[in-house]
Amino acid sequence: MIVRISGEDQYELADDDAAKLNELDNAVVELVESGREDGFAEAYSSMLEFVRSHGTRVADDDLQGSDCILPPPDLSFAEAGAEFTGEGLIPD
After folding, report:
1. For a tag site, which of 11, 45, 48, 50 has the least CB within 10 Å?
2. Three-state DSSP class for 12?
3. What are the pLDDT digits (tens) for 38-79?
4. How far is the C-alpha of 71 from the C-alpha of 80, rounded, in Å?
5. Beta strand pairing status for 56-57 and 10-12?
6. Residue 54: C-alpha distances to residues 17, 49, 73, 76, 91 (Å)
7. How confident is the model at residue 4 (pLDDT cuts 50, 70, 90)?
8. Would you say residue 89 has pLDDT above 70?
9. How many Å apart are CA 51 and CA 70, to the nearest integer?
């Protein structure tokens, strides 16, 4: 799975990591949909850190399409309301 973090890089994650990333995504969706701004920044940061630490950075000259594009790290809670809804950003 190729995941892009907007404004940063693309990372290749092992298929085994997709389920954990989906769990993290679902936690962010739950916070956003319930209007609980408290904890959002930490949950979203954990999601990004998971991608960075478990993924392998894709070289700049390797032109692969992304399976998922995550918003930039400075995403606000208000902006997240438009991104993290329903099933979230990570395809099942």
Report:
1. 45
2. strand
3. 999 999 999 999 999 999 999 988 878 889 899 999 999 988
4. 8
5. antiparallel
6. 8, 8, 17, 24, 18
7. very high
8. no
9. 10
Q: Which long-range contacts (CB under 8 A, 24 or more apart) does 67-71 make?
A: 67/1, 67/2, 67/3, 67/91, 68/1, 68/2, 68/3, 68/4, 69/3, 69/4, 69/6, 70/3, 70/4, 70/5, 70/6, 71/6
Locate all alpha helices (DSSP H) within 1-92, ordered by sequence. 15-33, 40-54, 77-83
pLDDT tops 80 at residue 83 = no
Domain ranges of the chain: 2-83
CB neighbourhood size of 24 (10 A): 19
Q: Is 77 helix (H, G, I), strand (E, B) or coil?
A: helix
For the record, the structure tokens of 65 come out as: 């399409």
